[in-house]
Amino acid sequence: MCSAMLIADSLVKRFGQFKAVDGVSFTVERGEVLGFLGPNGAGKSTTMRMLAGCLEPDKGVAQIAGHDCVQARLEAQARLGYLPEGAPAYPAMTPRSFVAFGLRARGFRAGALKRATDLALERARLGDMAEKPIGTLSKGYKRRAALAAAIAHDPAVLILDEPTDGLDPNQKDGVRDLIREMAPEKAIIISTHILEEVPAVCSRAIVIAGGRLLFDGTPNALAQRGKDHSIEAAFRQMTQEVEGG
Amino acid sequence: MMVDTLHAVYRRELTSYFQTPLAYVFLGFFAAAAPAFAFYTGRFFDTNRADLAPLFDYLPLLLVILMPALAMRSWAEERDRGTLEFLMALPIPLWAATLGKFLASWTVAAAALVLTFPMWMAVNYLGSPDNTAIATGYLGALLLSGGYLAVGQALSATTSNQVIAFVLGAGACFLLTMAGLPIVQSALGDGAPAFVSEFVAGLSALEHYDAMRYGVVSLPDLLYFVGLIAVSLSIAGLLIADRRGGGR
Q: A166: alpha, beta or left, given left = phi > 0 and alpha = psi -120 to 50?
């Protein structure tokens, strides 16, 4: 019996004739930070959406903390924090009210609601921006507001789709620190195009292209696959082979 | 827990109406347009009767336009902004999201109806109206608003474009209202069997609303509106649930 906090087992998803995800399987244990790599259109976001319960797989099973993401969606989602691609948020709300909405929907009330909201805003380093409408904030602060909403309920599993996209170098460091800080207690997946992020925060990496899993191992093992023992070279080699057909 | 999630969605939706100028423009327009219809088109003073018939006569026309305008954002805006992804990743049942959105828009509609109360005060000052009929008239208007809002929400779930959602919503509400009018009945008249004409007339929201205007609250009329709301919200929920299976 597997004790993994997150399980993707032979996931398949088609959009019409296009097979976006083609039999992807992996697991993530507590304490692991999994870097999810792949070129644009590789199937990363589709896989993450299936794990987040936003999309039902055509075949295969997705599980969060032992709960099936389709059959027991609410139980699975209760244990999950999800930062969707593009970090969508309601522009008229402030980060504080946005985070509080997510918490209220999860049953937080009164003192617990206030404590969790304050902590999430502090951890995502929103500062004074927490009280301004999200629509008026810079891209970096918007992303941090969505990140705060994803971590506010202290979930056992975190799925973060490009959490550092659009952030300046200082903000990127801040988010990486936050991920490292949370890592021992949680199972975390981050998708990223920024390959330098992988050795910096990830304990494991997987590479997908054309909807298929090409690699699953440590960042060091991934680097070994590259001609010059770099993750960049390994990534290019693997994904170009698939994309080149 | 389920009530908590419903309340969370209701609260967010209601707040969002007032965080933008939408609710204020809507309420201001309704407060001005409803009496304007009654005074100018309904000849409020010329009837020489102390009642709100001129208001209730023209209310459906106003609601056909304004309720879809209130409901058009329900799902179309979520889809357009990508926040549907955030909402769908929350552990909330779709019925709670659908009902929460509906109840919030219905609250704004109720507030709009409250703004016509000065007219009620005026007729009470000028004469002795049948206040029971006025009360059931308001109940009818509230239920009619609810029906239109639910239909508007279902059509908002079909698109990510709010203008399309509005046009579809207003069109559907217009047809729902027109179904019982003589013009539709006479158009059906010769060609259609009697049961078809009766069925089409039975679909008419106006028919069920009219009975309430005259102080009659019957179970079939109440069931019609509750049914219309329940069916429309279920369709909205099913359309959104279908997105989990189908993609963006």
A: left
Write out chain A residues lying below 8 Å of B83, CB-based: 88-90
Give the type of residue at A29: E
Residue A131 at interface with chain B, using a CB cutoff of 8 Å:
no
DSSP-derived secondary structure for B114-157: HTTHHHHHHHHHHS---HHHHHHHHHHHHHHHHHHHHHHHHHHT
Tokens of A106: 């999860």
Task: Sort out which chain B residues have CB atoms less than 8 A from A78's CB and list them.
Answer: 91
pLDDT at res. A121: 96
Name the DSSP class of A184. G
**pLDDT, tens only, B182-204:** 777 677 666 677 777 777 777 78
**Dist. CA A1–CA A25, nearest whole Å:** 16
Q: With an 8 Å Cβ cutoff, is A85 touching chain B?
A: yes
Query: B148 CB contacts (<8 Å, ≥6 apart)?
Result: B63, B64, B67, B68, B71, B169, B173, B176, B205
Mutate: best of A19, A85, A106, partner B, most B CBs <10 A: A106
Q: How far apart are CA B146 and CA B141, in angstroms?
A: 9
Contact partners, residue B59, CB within 8 Å, separation at least 6: B34, B37, B141, B144
The whole-angstrom separation of Cα A168 and Cα B77 is 29
B129-137: list long-range contacts, CB under 8 Å, 24+ apart. B129/B50, B129/B51, B129/B52, B130/B51, B130/B215, B132/B215, B133/B51, B133/B213, B133/B214, B133/B215, B134/B51, B134/B52, B136/B212, B136/B213, B136/B214, B136/B215, B136/B216, B136/B217, B137/B52, B137/B56, B137/B212, B137/B213, B137/B215
Residue B247 is predicted with a pLDDT of 46
* Count of positions (residues) in chain A: 245
Q: Is the pLDDT of residue A2 over 60?
A: no
Burial A79-101 (b: 16+ CB within 10 A, else e): bbbbbbbbbbbbbbbbbbbbbbb
Pairing of strands A6-15, A18-28: antiparallel
Q: Torsion-angle region of residue A14: left (phi > 0), alpha (psi -120 to 50) or beta?
A: beta
Contact of B112 with B31, CB cutoff 8 Å: yes
| Rg value, chain A, Cα | 18
Domain of B133 in residue numbering reads as 2-246
pTM over 0.80: yes
Q: Does pLDDT of B213 surpass 80?
A: yes
**Beta-bridge partners for A35:** A190, A205
* Locus of tokens 């827990």: B1
Q: Is the minimum CB–CB distance between A92 and chain B shorter than 8 Å?
A: yes
Q: How many domains does chain B have?
A: 1
